[in-house]
Write a structure and sequence with these properties.
alpha/beta, single chain, 212 residues, Rossmann fold, Arc Repressor Mutant, subunit A, 5-stranded parallel beta sheet, globular
């Protein structure tokens, strides 16, 4: 059972999300929060698997709430919910550990997909949205020093596929390797990049010009 916390200052949005998710097998909405402060408290109390986190909330915005929750020993997977696909906070949310993004008007199918993908840790959430957002990182100058342990050519192939929003199964099919091999490569890549999740791997690829 995937346990979900809804954090949004609009009750109507929370109600809509709850109705959609509660109708799905294997998903349970365990709580709601209307402010950033309440979102942190409820997440730490209820220990959900996934938090749908609005960016603009009173008392504390979703960006700061995400940053604080990601500092916990066992943080939930946080999907940032935004009204605009070019929200000025998106880059910051990615950098503090959000595992993906979802537009509020994305529709029921993508909402359910976002929750399941986040819980599985497999896909970039709503790939068409996330990849479009990540493309804007390509216009930023790359930061950071060269990797002490460079990526192998095959690891770079996997990174490029992740940056395009591919799932592990799709990567395995494209590269003609097993699913376990893809997972091994991803584990090695995360260690080399000090990345917390797939979105950070994708961001690194876009920032350093490995995807165009």
């Amino acid at each position: 059972m995937i346990r979900v916390l809804l954090a949004d200052d609009q009750e109507m949005v929370r109600t809509g999300f709850r109705l959609i998710l509660s109708a799905e097998d294997g998903i349970e909405v365990v709580g709601e929060a209307g402010t950033g402060v309440d979102a942190i408290a409820r997440a730490r109390e209820l220990r959900p698997d996934v938090v749908l986190m609005d960016i603009r909330m009173p008392e504390l915005d979703g960006l700061e709430a995400t940053r604080l929750l990601m500092a916990d020993r066992e943080p939930p997977r946080i999907v940032v919910v935004t009204t605009f696909d070019l929200d000025e906070y998106v880059y910051g949310a990615l950098r503090v550990g959000a595992c993906g993004f979802l537009l509020k008007d994305a529709g029921p199918r993508l909402l359910v997909e976002a929750v399941r993908a986040a819980a599985a840790g497999d896909a970039l959430v709503s790939p068409s949205v996330t990849v479009r957002l990540l493309k804007h990182l390509a216009t930023r100058p790359a930061t950071g020093s060269p990797l002490p342990d460079p990526l192998s050519p095959r690891e770079l192939d996997v990174v490029r596929a992740v940056a395009r929003g591919r799932t592990n199964a799709e990567i395995a099919a494209e590269l003609f390797v097993s699913l376990s091999t893809v997972k091994t490569h991803l584990t090695n890549v995360q260690a080399k990049l000090s990345a917390r999740n797939r979105v950070e791997i994708a961001a690194w690829a876009w920032e350093h010009g490995y995807v165009r």
